[in-house]
Amino acid sequence: MNYRQLGNTDLKVSELSFGTWAIGGSWGNTNDEESLKALQHAMDAGVNFFDTADVYGDGHSEELLAKATKGKENDIHIATKFCRAGDIEDPDTYSERQVREYCENSLKRLERETIDLYQIHCPPLAILKDGKVFEVLDKLKAEGKIRHYGVSVETVEEGLYCLENTDVSALQIIFNIFRQKPLDELIPQAYQKGVGILARVPLASGLLTGKFSENHSFQADDHRNFNQNGEAFNVGETFAGLEFNKGVQLSEQLRWIANDRDSMSKAALRWIMDHEEITCAIPGFKTVKQVEDNLKSLDVPSFSAEEMNKLQKFYQHDVQDHIRGAY
User: Fold this and answer.
1) Terminal CA-to-CA distance of the chain, rounded, Å?
2) What mean pLDDT comes out for the span 264-279?
3) If DSSP codes are grouped into helix, strand and coil, which group holds residue 205?
4) Spatial CA neighbour of 82 closest among 60, 111, 49, 104
5) Are 205 and 235 in contact (CB under 8 A)?
């Protein structure tokens, strides 16, 4: 396992880390016993960083992480997020009283005294510009409740605003072969300023595994069913903003990336890690096998400059006009 510095912080995290939305809920059926085995398997392989949120299964993923990392609090780093348990448009959601409550509840579920990275969970740009929430985060940091803070953003504009106007240690962004816009400005500027980048939705909600056919059906409680068109939250969080059948068609054009790399999913993760400016990719998982498959991306060949250029042109000519929503 390779480790990368999280921006200018004192944290070194595994370049392949994991997100825990899927084991918390909204991705179909889950099994806690299997989830805990999968977490252990990841840690045994050297993964030392996990991303979660207070709304993943109403805190269930945080509780699972507490069980899995008991006694390893100094070695296994956890990033969690807040604000979406309330009205994200309401300034009171970001008041000191409310943020303290969110933080204390997460600490209790995580069974920790300190949160390594505390992130605002995709707030509106107006809240970022208001700025009061960052004053609260500075207080929590001074008190030792959190070590570092960051923002999970939906758009490049939000990310650039944070870089220019706040003291964030990290930004979490949607970044994958289908979502390359951050490469133009956001990622280079973050790298220059010493701000870490966590790449979420790295497999475009499964599109980049190449395993789906058009008209595939998902379980009712899977966001890939109930949020296909942004009905529940930002459309970009599901299939990276692509309409599902269009995404399937585009993924068919990418089958070549699996050449000499075993599978499309391993190749897609390798592509992200081939960008040195990215701190880590955070794919989701529900089973030990999924963790194993994702870990194998560490061993497949990197992309050549020619292949990188080919993928950039593919994004520019075939993909970007089909992404829905602001990004």
Assistant:
1) 31
2) 98
3) helix
4) 104
5) no
Provide mean pLDDT across the span 208-232: 91
CA distances from 264 to 48, 179, 220, 306, 317 (A): 25, 16, 26, 18, 20
How confident is residue 29, by pLDDT bands cut at 50, 70 and 90? confident
Yes or no: say if 57 and 47 are a contact pair by the CB < 8 Å rule: no
Burial class (CB in 10 A: 0-12, 13-18, 19+), 42: buried
Query: What region, left, alpha or beta, does residue 128 occupy, with left being phi > 0 and alpha being psi -120 to 50 degrees?
Result: alpha
Rounded Cα gap, residues 149 and 193, in angstroms? 15
What is the torsional sign of CA 129, 197, 57, 65? Answer: negative
Residue with tokens 């995290």: 13
Three state DSSP letters for 217-239: CCCCCEHHHHCCCCCCCCHHHCH
- Triad 75, 77, 81: Cα angle to 5°: 165
Is 0.85 surpassed by the pTM of this model? Answer: yes
What is the rounded average pLDDT for all residues in the chain?
96
How far, in Å, CA of 174 to CA of 201, rounded? 6
**What are the phi and psi torsion angles at 72 (to 5°)?**
-120, 20
Q: Which two tokens stand for residue 43?
A: 């840690």
What 3-state DSSP class applies to 16? Answer: strand
Residue 32, CA atoms < 13 Å, CB-side half-sphere: 10
Can you tell me which residue has the tokens 């498959």?
293
- Map tokens 């807040």 to a residue: 82
Question: Is the predicted pLDDT of residue 28 greater than 80, yes or no?
Answer: no
| Domains assigned to the chain | 3-322 (3.20.20.100)
What pLDDT, on the 0 to 100 scale, is given for residue 198? 98
